[in-house]
C-alpha cells in the first residue's frame, strides 16, 4: 500500500481536547476523528487494527465452538420490559420513539435480544449447550464520555452469550471462555491480568474482568505478591486488623467530653485526632462514620457505616451486603440537620439507623466518634455495645496496597492500574426466568436455561494496547494488531534507482504476505518521514535511500528495541522474515510466563 494514496493526516501537535495518550496518539497518527462526544470515525489505519483484533477474537472463540451471528442495534422496548430492565437501566440506555410512537432503545448490550432468539428455537436438552456471539456497535449514553476510544458512547464490542442445561455446564463454559480470553489477550501481545470482580448482589453469579495493565487505567487492582489472588479493589477481601489497644481497661461511653472546636468536614476528623494526640489520644482510637442512602427500585432507606479513621469505605461491598441497587452519601445538609450538628461532629450513636461496622473494628473499644453536638466527640465508644440498630461487623473497607493477602500465608497486596477490556460473567437464570427461556430435560421436565455472558471491548482494547505500548515518539505496536507490519520508507523518491529498489522490496514483501505501508511521498525530508514512522509505530521500518545504496545497503529498524541492521537490498525479505520470527518468539515467551 502506497502512503501517498492512504487517507491519513498526521499531526505534530497534541490535539487540545485529547486527554489520554492513546487518544492523543490515535488522533496524531490520523487513526480516528471525533464526530461528537464519545463518537468517532475509525479511519483506515484504526480499522486495520480493529479488524485484526476482531479476527483473533473470532478464531479463539470458534475454536471453542462459539457461533457468530449479528443482532440489531435498535431494540424494541417490549423485550426490555419483559426482562424488567426497561425501568431499571439508567440513562446510559438511550430510549427513543419511532414515527408510530413505539418505544425503542439503542442496544448497550444484548441479553434480551439473544434470549428471545434462543427461546424460540431451542427447547430440548439435546440442543444445549449453545454459545452465540457477535461483534457489533453498541451505544451507551455514558455520563462522561472521555479518553477517546476507551470510554466512548458508540463503540464496538464482542458480546457472547451461552445457554446451558445445568449449573455445572455453565461453570464449565465459564472457565472455557476464561481460558479463551487468556489466549486472546496473549495473542494480542499485551500485559494483562484476569481479576476477580464484583458481580452485584445476584445470587449464584460470579465474574472476572480482564484488565490491560497501564498507569492510566481507571480501575485499581490488587494482586498478591505470593499467590494468584488478583481482584478489582471493589471486590478485594480486606484482612481483619486486630485492635491495637486491646490491653486497655474498657471504658463506658463518655458523652460530649472531647472538645474539638473548629473541625467541620468529616474527612478532617482523623486530622483532629492526630492534633489531639498531643492531649494523649492515639490516632487509631478514632472511628469515622458515614451516613448512606441505599435504594432498590422504589424503596430507599438510610444506613450507617463505622470504620477505623484511617480506612476507606468500600461502597460496593456495602451495597451488596444490604441488597441495594444504588448507594450514595446522604447529602451533607440533610445529614447535618438530622444529627443537629455540623458534619465533623456527626456520629453513629444517637442516629438511629441500621449501622454496620467494618470487620477491623471487631473487638475494638475506647473509640472516639462524633457526638452529634457542635465541637464534641465521644470517647469510650464500642460499636457492638453502644449502637441501637447494630448490624454486625463485616468486611466493608477498601483493601490497600501492603495489606496482608487473605488467600495465602505471608503474601501482601500490590497495587496496579488496569483498563477493563473484557469480562466473563456467569448470569445464572436471571434472564431465562424473567423471559421464559426454558427447555425440556431428559425426564421431560421444563427448566430455565442457565446462562453466561462474555464481553470484550474491541475498540477499547485497541486504545488500551496503545496506552501500554508507546514512547515519547509515538505508538509501539505489538505485531499482531499493528495496522501494518512493515513501514517501507523511500527516502529519495526523486531518484529512480532508489524508487526501483523500494518498489522491488515492496513487491517481495507483499508477495510473501507481509503488510507493507510504502512511504513513497515526495517532497518530504528523511527526518519528516522518520518522525511519522515513529508516530505510526509499525513494528519494522525498512529504509531505502541514495546514501545507503551508494554503499550497497538498505536499513531495517526495530521500533521497540531501536536496533538497526544494514544489508544489501536482496536480503530485505529474509531479514524481515527473521525479525518477525524473533518478535513473535518473544511474544510467545512473554505469554508463557
Ligand atoms: P465500564 O465498567 O468500564 O463502564 P462495563 O463493565 O459497564 O464497563 P461491560 O458491560 O462489561 O462494560 O461491557 C463489556 C466490555 O465492553 C467492557 O469490558 C469494556 O471493554 C467495553 N466497554 C464498556 N463500556 C465501554 C465504553 N463506554 N467505551 C468503550 N468500551 C466499553
Ligand atoms: Mg464490565
Verbal overview:
- The chain has 593 residues and is α+β, with helices and mostly antiparallel strands.
- The protein has 3 domains: 17-236 and 415-467, BirA Bifunctional Protein, domain 2, CATH 3.30.930; 257-394, YbaK/aminoacyl-tRNA synthetase-associated domain (YbaK protein, Alpha-Beta Complex), CATH 3.90.960.10; 484-590, Rossmann fold (3-Layer(aba) Sandwich).
- The strands form 8 sheets. Strands 3, 7, 8, 9, 10, 11, 12, 21 and 24 form a 9-stranded mixed beta sheet that branches. Strands 16-14-15-17-20 form a 5-stranded mixed beta sheet. Strands 28-27-29-30-31 form a 5-stranded mixed beta sheet, sandwiched between helices.
- The longest helix has 22 residues, at 167-188.
- It is globular, with a radius of gyration of 29 Å.
- The relative contact order is 0.14.
- Residues 263-267 have low confidence and may be disordered.
- Magnesium ion (MG) is lined by residues 209, 420, 423.
